[in-house]
Every structure is written in C-alpha cells, then in structure tokens.
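Box 3.1 — From sequence to structure: DegT/DnrJ/EryC1/StrS family aminotransferase
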Amino acid sequence: MNVPFFDLRVSDLALRKELLDSVEGVLNHGRILFGPEVDEFEEKVAQAAGTKYAVGCSSGSSALYLALRCLDIGPGDEVITTPLTWIITGNAIAECGATPVFVDIRDDFNIDPDAITDSITTKTKAVIPVHFTGLMCEMDRICEIAKKHDIHVIEDAAQSFGAEYRSQKAGSFSSVAIFSMNSMKVLGGYGETGVAVTDREDLYEKLKMLRYTGTKSDPAKIITNEAIYVSLNHKIDTVQAAMLLVMMKYLPDRMKRRTEIAIRYNQALSDIVLCPEFRKGDIHALYTYAIQAEKRDQLMKHLNDNG
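Predicted structure (token representation):
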C-alpha cells in the first residue's frame, strides 16, 4: 500500500458542499476581490492570532516579503534567520536587497537564541524566527534579545497557525508576523493564501498599500489610486477567503485529532527515534511530524521502498 505524504482531495461530501456553497456565494455577489469574506476572514485571523490587525495576501511568501518591506528593510541591512526553513525565508530577505544571516538551530529544530546574540552586528535590522513544523521558538528570549539590540522580530509562522508558546499565540510576539494557508497547511485553503498580522496601525495601513501595488484609494475618487510605494500585486482572492472561513470552523477538531495521532506515534516510536516535543503550556501545530534518527538515510530509503 502506497501512503501519500499529502492527500488534498476533499472526500468528505458535507465539507465539499460547504466549500462549493462558499464559492457560489462569491459568484453570486460578484466581489471577486476585497469581498465581504475577505474582511471577515481577516478579522477572524487577527482574533485567532491575538493581534489587532490582519492583512490577507496572495501567499505566505508574499506576506513575508511585505512584512520586511513595511519595516523598511533593504540594501545594507542584515536579517538573522535559520537555514532550516522553506527557501522563501531567505529569498524574501534577499529580494528586499538585504542580506540573510543564517545561524544554527537547537535539537528541537528551532533557531538558537544564543546564536542570534552572537550574530548581531551594527547592520542587523531584524530577526526572523521560524516556528519549524508548528513548534514555536523560544520567543520570550528572542524578544528580549531583540529589544536589547533595538531590532525587529518578524515571526515566520507559516507552519504554525494555532500554535502557542507559554499560552501566547503564534503571531502575537512580533512587530509583524506571517502565516501561510496554502493547501498543505493545517489551516489550508485551496490554492495559495497568506496573512500578515500586527498590532501596529501604521504597519497595518502600510501593509494594505504594499499588497495593492503600493497604492492608496481616494474616497473622493479625484485620484483613482494614488501610488505611495513601489510594489506589485499581492492581493488575496475573495474565493480563497470564503473557503478558508469554512475550514476555520474545523480547525480546532483537526488540531485535536493531529495531536492525538502524534501522541500515539510518540508512545510507539520514542524508543526508536527522537520524537517531537510536547511542552507544558505550549500548543504544537503539527504541520508535520518530524523525527530524528541515527541512520536517517537508511530509514528514509526503507520507508520509501515499503510505501
């Protein structure tokens, strides 16, 4: 039997109907961009993340790029992050003209706060901790280091919507944080979607302009769209927001079930491999179940050969 790593089919007929109904609602009102579902989705994401504001974007990649842009990170700046991440973390930094500075991780796969301290220079503008596979970084120490050195924290929470560190939600520790809601994520849409969240109104207003080609709408319509910044199109589609509103209803049960399965794996595998941590006061989003093994390559080959 071949078990797929991801199975993105919608086999639940009741869920399929809800999703199709949500799309039909968008087609009926016709507001394909910035429809009411986008406003509702952003409000619910901000509430779930424990922040004041959320800005829907076309992808998590766009959200991270815009997070860097809204903090004026650019040429000559350095941004500290981890190499154990999807390539977009480094790409977004480089695309802004800044230099990614990669530092080591700890046994939990997350960035080492001591390594952050050792790598700070006069050029350091920000640090991007990545909550790898949904297990949050040691955010109290990272925020303390950032405050001491007057640098920004940008949480790359692409894999960790719904996670918590010491009962505080992912996305609520930083100047700006980002989530990915592409189809593979725990809260996954049906295509590409991302969100940037913040508590700062000035950054919220700037993010909204940056996602829409750097423009600001004129209510008087004297100027259709006044260009404030140089940017591209990073808007969220209403259809994605509508479908994600459906999926948000099922997220608590989905996360609960993933945790139950992961605990069962830990009980069966902890004597064979190093299993994911479940720390008191934390919630692991469990984007994936990542293990460490002494003979990694041989184990991977065995698993692939046997489905």
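Summary of the box: Residues 13-246 form a domain with the Aspartate Aminotransferase; domain 2 fold (CATH 3.40.640.10).
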